[in-house]
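TL;DR need C-alpha cells for one chain.
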Amino acid sequence: MTLQPQSEAASPPIETVEVAALKRERRIRLKLWGRQLTWTREHLSLTVILLLSSFLGLWGLERNGYSNDFYAAAVKSMLVNWRNFFFASFDPGGFVTVDKPPLALWIQTISAKIFGFNGVSLLLPEALTGVLGVALLYFMIKRAFGTGAGLIAALVLAVTPIYVVMNRHNNPDSLMVFFLLLAAWAWLRAAETGRLRWLLLGSLLVGLDFNIKTLEAIVVLPAFYLLYFLLANTGWRKRIVHLVLATLCVLAISFSWSIAVDLTPASQRPYVGGSTNNTEMNLIFGYNGLGRVEATTPSGANNFQPPAGVTLPGGTLPQPPAGVTFPGGANGLPGVAGGAGPTMGGTPGPLRLFGQSLSGEFGWFLPLALLGLAFAVFQTRSGMAKGLNRSRRLQALVVWGGWLLLYGAVFSLSTGTSHSYYLTVLAPAVAALAGIGVAVMWQSYRKGGWQAWFLPVSLAATAFFQAYTLSGLSDWNSWLVPVLVVFGIVALLGLGLGLIGRTEARARRWSMGVVGVTLFGLLIVPTALSVRAVFTAITGAIPSAVPGGGQLGGFGGDSTSRNATATNTVLNFVKNNLSGQLILVVALVGVGLTIVLVARLLRGHKLFTLRRMSAVAVMAFLVSSSAWWFQVGQAQASSTTTASADLTFNPGGGGTEQVNTSLVKYLEANRAGYTYLVAVNSDMSAAPYILQTGDAVMSMGGFSGSDQILTVTSVQQLIKNHTIRYFLIGGMGGGPGGGNSSVSTWITGQCKAVSSSAYSSATTSGNTSSSPSSNRGFGGFGGQDSLYDCSQAA
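>> reply
TL;DR here they are.
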C-alpha cells in the first residue's frame, strides 16, 4: 500500500504545528559578547543534554592512554608512508595488515597527523562523533514524534554505558554507529521525499560504513530497503528502479577498497591479516563474516599449548570468567590459536540479551523500547496519526524497529566470535524507541481508557528489569535494587491514581510529576555507570561498561592497582562512590534546571531576573568545568598512564606484553643493517614495541598469532636478504613462528639462542615489572620469551 501525504487541510504539516508551539513557548534571552541569543526551553534542554554528552565523551580522555595498543600501533605505522596508510598496515615495515577495513583507522590517522600522535588524538574522533550522534538522533526522532520524544531519546543515548565507553575507546565501533546514524537519516529523507539523490547518499554512507566493520555495518540494511520499498513517497516502478541503483552504489562503495587490495600483487602489499589465503574477500566472508556468527575455527589453527618453560596451575588453562564461553571446546582457545576470541556471554537464544551482564551494557531501557515499539505501531496503524505525520511515524518505526530487531536477532543467536561491546550498535535503537514509547504512551494516557495503562506498566516493567540487571553486577551499589523496585511501584500506583482525575489540571500536573520522577529514577544507574567510565582508565582490546562483569573484568580489565595510582581525593570520591557520581551528574543537569525553575518561580523579583540567573548558571558551569579539568590534569600528571591492561588471563588481546627497554637497546645496538628490529609471534605482542620505538617489528602470525604467513623457505629468504635477524619467541599467540609449527621448529633448531644475560635488566616500560631476563608472555601468563639470532642460519 502506498502512503501518500493527505491534504494540508486535513492534517497540517508537523512543521506548522512545531512553529505554532514555539511561538507560544517562553523564550530565554542571553546577551553574550554583545550578541543577543534567544533560546527556547527545547534549545536549553538539548544544550544541557549535549553538554552532558560532551562531558561523558571528552573529559579526561588522556587517562585512557592508547586504549587498544593494536589499533594505536597500526595508526603509528600508517603515519610512516602512503603505502602503509592505504593498505592499513599494522607494522611500520608493511608486513601484515590490520584484520579490519581501513576507514576508521584512516580517520584516526588524519587526527593524529593534525594533532600529533598521542592517546587523545586517537580517541578524539570517537568522542566527537558520539556527541554528534546524540544530536542527530534527537533531530530524527523529533521530526516524526515531536520534541519530547527527541529529548528523551537523546538523553537515554547520551547516558547508555556502553555507548559512553566506546566513545572513549579507539575500537572502530563508535565510528560505525555514527555512520549508521547518518545513513538512517539519509534513508528517512529519501523515503519522505522520494528523491533518488537522498537514497544514493544513504547508500554511499552504508558503503563507507562497510569499510569500517564490514558485514556488521550492513545488518540493518534490510530495514532500510523495507522502508523505501513500502513507504517511499513515489510510485512503485520508481521505487524498484531506485533500489536497484542503491544496491549498485552500496556494492561499489563497499567492495572498492577490498578489490583494489586483492588486485594488487601480494609481493607489493602487506599480507591480509586474519585471512587464510591473503585476500580481503576471504577476510570479509570468513573471519569477519561467518566466523562472527558461527563457532568455527580457521584452518591451520592448533589447540593451545603453553610455551616452553611455562607451567600452568593444574596443567590446564585457567577457567574463563563466568558467562564467557569459548568456541571449540575446553581445550581449544580461538583468539590465541584459532584467530578468534571469547564469545559474547550468555546462552545463544531469544532471551540472551536480557541476561544481566549483557543488558548491563546497553539494555537499561530495553523493556520500554520494546513495549514502546509495539504500542507506537498499534497507535500509528489504528489511525491516531494522520497525513504526513502518520507517514513519518511509520517510516521511523520501520527504521528503529528494524534496527533493534535485526541486530538483536544476530547477537542473540550468534555462536561465533563476538564481544559484549558490539552491543553499542543497539544503543541508538533502544534510545529512539524509549523516547518514542514515552511520547506516544503519554498521549494515550491523557485520553484515558484501557490504553492509558500502557505507560505505567511500561515504566514499572523497566524499573523492575533494571533492578534485576543491577542485582547481577557483583556488589556494585546493590542497595539501589530495592530503590528501583520502589520507583516501579511509584510509577504503577502514581499514574494509576492520576487516571482518576485526569481531566483536571492538578491531576495532569501530578501525572507529569510521577513520569518525571520515574524517568529520573530510571536514569540513575546508567548515568552512574557512564560517569564511572569517565573516571576510569578504559584500556585493552575488549572494553566493558559493567563493573567486574561483562567481558573479562569490565573497562577492558582495568586493574585495581592502576586505579590506586590516582591520588586525588576528589576524583577517587567521584569514581568509587555513587553519591559522588550523582553529585557530579546533578551539578551538570542542574545548570539547565536552575535556569528553568528560576524563570518560572522568581521571574517577578528584580534581584533574580532571568537574564542574571542565566548568566550566573553559565558562569558557574564554566568555572566548575575549569576547576574539575585542572584537578583531572593534576591527577594525570602525577601518575603514569599506560596503553595496556594488566591482566592475569585475557585471551583475545585485552592485555599485552611489557616492553623490556634493555632488550630494545640490545636489538638496536646489534641490528647490523637489518630492516626489522625483531620478529614476534603476534600483533598484540608487537604492538607495545611499535608504540615504544616506532620501528619495524614483524608480527609473524597476525593478530592472534594463528595466521600462516611464513614458511621455512620464506624465513630463510628474509634472513638472507638482511630483512630480519632476531626472533623473540615465547608467550602465547600460536606458539613460536606464528601459526606455522614448522617455522618454530626451524628457528629453535637452526638459530642461536641469545643468553638472557646479554640484555638482562629490570628496566621495563609499562605499569608492571617483568623479570630481568624476559618479557611478559602475551596474555599475562608470564612465560619466558627467548631471543634467537638467525644471522648465520640461512
